Amino acid sequence: MALDPAYLEYPKRREGYDHDLYPWSSIFDRKPVAWPDGKPVAVWLCVSLEWFPMTPSDTPFRAPGHMQTSYPDYRHYTAREYGTRVGFYRLLDAFRKAGVKASIATNGAIAERYPQIIADIMADGHEIIAHSTDMNGTIASTLPEADERALIAQSLASIEAAAGKRPAGWLSIARSESWNTPRLLKEAGLRYTCDWVNDELPWRFANGLVNLPLNHELSDRQIITVQQQSADSYAQQMVDAFDWLVKEAADHGGRVLPLHITPYIMALPYRIAAFEALLQTLAARPEAWFATGEEIVTSWEGQQ
Amino acid sequence: MSEAQKADPGLYDFVPYRNRSKIVWPGGKKVAIWVAPNLEYYEIDPPANPHRKSWTKPHPDVVGYAHRDHSNRVSHWRMADAMSKYGFPGSVSLSVALCQHHPEVVKDANERGWEFFSHGIYNTRYTYGMDEAQERAIIEDSIRTVRDATGQTIRGWLAPALTHTPRTLDLIAEYGLDYTCDLYHDDQPQPVKVQSGKLISIPYSLEVNDHYGFFVYNMSPREYADTLIRQYERLAEEGETSGTVMCIPLHAYLIGQPHRIGPFAEVLRHIAEDGRAWIARAGEIADHYYDHHYAEAAHGA
């Protein structure tokens, strides 16, 4: 039996995208971006700070890094908590030592459960990005709109209550959105999301929400956990990326290098030194502008 | 088709690598190198094919879609500039609907002197389950779309998402296409047995495809670069005996990432400076093979 004739019909085959979420443009055709002080490359540190309930949910899908064994999965629950209790403080110390600010993509549950950690983040001047409620708060088009709206509101309320400030940015778990997400994030008053990895500069959805791409290919999860490479190799790859972007920026304007870090992956005793050395290397480079997500978005918006 | 025919559809003769007649590439070069960028369009909300799922997640699969969109907003030009700098033209495996969606990308490739062959309409529309009329429709669509957009007549085929039917090779030969990139049985071009016309296979590669390098073998950017150089060195060495072919199949959204493009550009520099490589388009390799070797290979064995 042949395929349904509709399989050879292409109703969205037209100039531009097959959706209306955002318009197309090439990064090489846009007006060049200039970062503060003439720095060619914005280095954006983004740390995911997550709480995994020991009772994982598969609705709409189970988050990466979540529980794997029969209940009770002490092994994964505590290994993730290690990242929050120990590893994250190694990262805060590393940021202090390098004199750099980061964006911390934080589950609302972290703010509810561990207000001290929010106070420590704020005291060091880092940005908090809303990162859903907890690691059961995944989003996909199978999640009812009302549930998604409530999830976004709860995440923002929990963080605002602990931090005294409403986040401007949003990162979905696994960068997974529904058809409704850009609209719901805009409705909730957020300025930007980090979920769409299709570009290396901020861009705007049709509804005005900004996307600041958090490149998943450059994340410690992708390079170390998925591709099984060493922390030394990871650090080398980031320096290679930085060097390339510096060269490209000379001809085409400012670029962004997003470093997406996970405490329970990168901040282990045997990996953290490679990351600290990477921070020192990049912090010593005159071409680097270390900036939070919101600072990058603000600088970019001011030039549009 | 009988079970025996299905078990071996008789695509080609068994020809051992030892004692082959000598292929000499133009200029006495030892290895023909061609670079095959896949310029693709993946739909955000494609219809379901009963034989294969497209996205693994409910639509929109934001990371899957956006990762591939990176090609058409950022990394195509990064990859293409590195290729142009060292004198490598592309032979493009094209989702032909890209001609409609992002003509700027297709125009850029055409202006660089790249050759186009078809990789189907979209990389989210699979050939599995098509009847003959449907399969003819996508071949005719491919020929017409690429001609309208670039002035070029496609000469080759790489099945969309590597999805075939048992009649695909016969059909593309009937439409006058010269080469297929879907067969991985050799390091030299080979005649392919088809019902009418002529067809040859040109070595493409899964093994040194950037997708395999990064997502099957999980290589770091520098390990992948080293892999390409080892592949090149061996094929150039064996090309002394009889000319070989090396393909570097690429996806801009993979090779054009900022941590990968630098080591890759060094590979291109290495090959360009080596002197044993005939840097060519797929069609030029096909022409040379048809002109000098096809008759003997197809009939002399």
Automatic annotation (TrEMBL), chain A:
Residues 74-291 form the NodB homology domain. It comes from the Bacteria. Gene3D superfamilies: Glycoside hydrolase/deacetylase (3.20.20.370). One of its GO terms (molecular function) is hydrolase activity, acting on carbon-nitrogen (but not peptide) bonds. PROSITE patterns: NODB. InterPro entries: Glyco_hydro/deAcase_b/a-brl (IPR011330), NODB_dom (IPR002509). One of its GO terms (biological process) is carbohydrate metabolic process. Belongs to the polysaccharide deacetylase family. Is involved in generating a small heat-stable compound (Nod), an acylated oligomer of N-acetylglucosamine, that stimulates mitosis in various plant protoplasts. This is Chitooligosaccharide deacetylase.
TrEMBL record, chain B:
GO terms for molecular function: hydrolase activity, acting on carbon-nitrogen (but not peptide) bonds. Residues 61-301 form the NodB homology domain. CDD domains: CE4_PuuE_like. GO terms for biological process: carbohydrate metabolic process. SUPFAM superfamilies: Glycoside hydrolase/deacetylase. InterPro entries: Glyco_hydro/deAcase_b/a-brl, NODB_dom. It comes from the Bacteria. Belongs to the polysaccharide deacetylase family. Is involved in generating a small heat-stable compound (Nod), an acylated oligomer of N-acetylglucosamine, that stimulates mitosis in various plant protoplasts. This is Chitooligosaccharide deacetylase. It comes from Sphingobium chungbukense.
